[in-house]
Each structure stands twice: as C-alpha cells, then as structure tokens.
C-alpha cells in the first residue's frame, strides 16, 4: 500500500498549539501501545456517512486518533492529500470552531471549500426543503459537512444526497466529530487510556456536568467514553434532571460495562474526579436552557490535583476564566486538536489514505 522508503519530516518542536492551559505532545500517543496505525481498519470508513458516535467502535476511534497525532506531528499536510476534492460546509446554525476547523483542515490539505456559513443565504429563506438542497449538493462537491438546529435535518437531506455527509451538530441530536476530538485530547493527555490492558489503577473517574440527553456534544462524547471500559472506571453525571440521558444514551449505558451514576451535588464529585466535562447550554425543544448556576466551575472549586476540564466551547459563565491559566485547563488543547482529527477523518472518508507520502512512520508493513 504505502512504502517506507524515506523518512517523513517531523516538526522540529512538539506541535504545542494552544497558548495557555495544559499543552499536549502528540508523540506520546504515537509511541505508546501498538505503534503501527491500522490503516486497513480506517479504510473501511471510505465513503461512509458520519452521523452518530454509535456508528464507531473503540478500535476505529483509537486508530483515527493515532492518525490525527501523526498529522499533528509531521508534515504530511504539505503533501496535498485532498488536492482535487471539494467539500461543502453547510451551516444552518452558528459555529466558530466546527466550521472554521473543518475548512482549515481541508485547505491545509489543498482541498477546496464551498461554504454556506449562514443557511439564511440559501433557498431555505424562500422555503426550500433540505431534501431538494441534498439533490443540488450531489453535483456541487465530494462531501458535505452540515450543521442544523433540527435533529431530523440529517434524515431530510440524506433522502436525495449521494455524497458522504459528516454531522457537524444536528439540534439536540449528536456532534460526533466533537466527541472524537474530545477522545483524541484525552488520549494525548493520557496515552495509557488507549491500551487494551489499561491497568485498573490508571483508569479515570469522569464527571459530566449537564444533561447529555439534551446536549449533543456531551451525548456523543458520553457514547464514545462508554466504549472504553478499561479507561473510565466510573462516569458520574451531575444534573438536576431526573432523566439526563434520553433513549439513545440510556441504551448505550445499558450496553456498556462502565458504571454510570447521577448526582446533583457537584462539590462532592469534584473532590474525586480526574476528568470533568462541562457544557454550557442544553437544547430543550425550540429553546435553550443554561446550566444551573450551582454547577459553575472556577479556580476556587476543590478540584483534585491533576484533574482536567474539557468543554467543547463556546462557554458562558459556567466555566470561569480564572481556570484558564491553570493546569486544569484542557479545553484550549481540546479546541486546538480539532483541525488534526478532522483532517484524519476527511482523508479517510474521502478515500485518500492511499495518497499518503512514502516513508510515513507507524504504518503496518
Ligand atoms: N464545539 C463546537 O461545536 O463549537 P462551535 O459551535 O463554535 O462550532
């Protein structure tokens, strides 16, 4: 498939991309466990839609993360891997990170973009259906990345769409690529969490603050975390709601051996957890609900030494800026991981793995 004839250049310094907070070195993920990337496994994603975290298994997520680490660490991006590919980014709902990091990922690999940064500039403003827009997209590009405020939007556009589509957030549904970025960030932080035989005393206690059933990024992240029973010894959901899970996540919890419990006492949990995942708002029908003020995090909270905080951002006042300069801040490293994970996914779904340059390290021989 790919020969190992000449070494690929590695970036001179570890590619530490965020300016404050914890900074992560991707080399540690690549040098731990099975050092070869299973590109044959990744190739099974070629041409596939990326709709839900449920569509992925643990091994595929790990290989995607290792490939992202390789992209972050080396200069593969300069080898024009998406040359000739045209990606449609169709955003019918506001975004900073997702649209711009997808577009940066494509452009840095020499692909091209057709962008809808605001759905109101399309025929939607005149009542056009997503079903018809899907039909149009078939001749406009090679892959669609779509965000939409309605959960049903993916089913609608897929009725006539022949191109692969990546779900960039559908209402209160899911945000699977954000969840992959979150796992990638955690595996860079603690590469041993990717090991099949992660020792029990290395497993982490994860707290999720919010209502995953109504928070798409959190829901997708929880679904992926549940695939790692040796890495997560417990997941505690801190929520004021009686049922914070919803049907799909409840089914994923049922299928996983990771113990999950619910509490509304955030202070008690913070003393024990190693990883805290917090989000800002939940979608409840047509409206947004902000996180309860009791659950806000700041530098005065009794966080365990070494504990890290993830937040998909954008934040409001639930995550105080006093945490930004601390070692608990993994959320800026999380945001900085987005381009590389999305590059790995785009190269894979667009079936361009065979164009990797010779000399790529960590390839199965
Ligand atoms: N994390 C995330 O989805 O951010 P944006 O809403 O800015 O895309």
Keywords:
single chain, alpha/beta, 12 helices, 11 strands, Rossmann fold, five-stranded parallel β-sheet, 365 residues, binds phosphoric acid mono(formamide)ester
Structure summarized in a few sentences:
By secondary structure, this protein is α/β, with parallel strands linked by helices. The protein has 2 domains: 9-174 and 337-355, Aspartate/ornithine carbamoyltransferase (Rossmann fold); 177-336, Rossmann fold (3-Layer(aba) Sandwich), CATH 3.40.50. It has helices at 27-30, 39-43, 58-73, 97-108, 130-137, 153-157, 176-189, 216-225, 246-255, 266-270, 331-336, 338-349; strands at residues 86-91, 112-116, 143-148, 165-170, 204-209, 232-238, 260-263, 275-278, 281-284, 287-290, 308-310.
Task: Tell me what the structure shows.
The chain has 365 residues and is α/β, with parallel strands linked by helices. It has two domains: 9-174 and 337-355, Aspartate/ornithine carbamoyltransferase (Rossmann fold, 3-Layer(aba) Sandwich); 177-336, Aspartate/ornithine carbamoyltransferase (Rossmann fold, 3-Layer(aba) Sandwich), CATH 3.40.50.1370. Helix content is 29%, strand content 15%. It has twelve helices and eleven strands. It has helices at 27-30, 39-43, 58-73, 97-108, 130-137, 153-157, 176-189, 216-225, 246-255, 266-270, 331-336, 338-349, and strands spanning 86-91, 112-116, 143-148, 165-170, 204-209, 232-238, 260-263, 275-278, 281-284, 287-290, 308-310. Helix 3 (58-73) crosses helix 12 (338-349), helix 4 packs across helix 12 (338-349) and helix 7 (176-189) crosses helix 8. The site of phosphoric acid mono(formamide)ester (CP) has 11 residues, from helix 4.
């Amino acid at each position: 498939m790919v020969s190992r004839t000449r070494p690929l250049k590695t970036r001179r310094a570890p590619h530490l991309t965020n300016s404050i907070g914890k900074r992560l070195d991707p080399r540690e993920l690549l040098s731990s466990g099975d050092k070869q990337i299973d590109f044959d496994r990744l190739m099974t994603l070629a041409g596939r839609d990326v709709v839900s975290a449920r569509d992925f298994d643990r091994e595929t997520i790990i290989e995607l993360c290792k490939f992202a680490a390789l992209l972050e660490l080396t200069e593969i991006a300069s080898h024009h891997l998406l040359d000739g590919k045209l990606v449609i980014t169709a955003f019918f709902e506001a975004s900073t990170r997702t649209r711009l990091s997808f577009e940066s990922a494509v452009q840095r690999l020499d692909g091209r973009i057709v962008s809808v940064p605001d759905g109101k500039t399309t025929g939607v403003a005149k009542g056009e259906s997503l079903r018809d827009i899907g039909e149009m997209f078939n001749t406009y590009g090679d892959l669609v990345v779509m965000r939409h405020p309605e959960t049903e939007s993916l089913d609608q556009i897929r009725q006539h769409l022949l191109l692969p589509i990546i779900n960039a957030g559908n209402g209160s549904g899911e945000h699977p690529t954000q969840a992959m970025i979150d796992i990638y960030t955690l595996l860079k932080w603690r590469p041993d969490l990717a090991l099949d035989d992660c020792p029990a005393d290395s497993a982490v206690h994860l707290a999720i603050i919010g209502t995953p059933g109504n928070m798409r990024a959190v829901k997708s992240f929880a679904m992926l975390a549940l695939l790692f029973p040796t890495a997560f010894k417990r997941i505690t959901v801190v929520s004021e709601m009686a049922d914070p899970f919803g049907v799909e996540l409840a089914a994923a919890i049922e299928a996983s051996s990771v113990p999950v419990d619910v509490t509304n006492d955030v202070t008690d949990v913070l003393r024990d957890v190693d990883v805290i995942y917090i989000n800002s708002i939940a979608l409840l029908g047509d409206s947004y609900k902000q996180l309860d003020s009791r659950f806000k995090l700041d530098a005065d909270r009794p966080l365990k030494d070494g504990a890290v905080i993830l937040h998909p951002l954008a934040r409001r006042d639930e995550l105080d800026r006093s945490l930004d300069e601390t070692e608990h801040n993994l959320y800026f490293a999380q945001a900085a991981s987005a381009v590389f994970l999305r590059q790995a996914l785009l190269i894979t779904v667009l079936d361009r793995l065979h164009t990797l340059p010779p000399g790529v390290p960590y390839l199965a021989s």
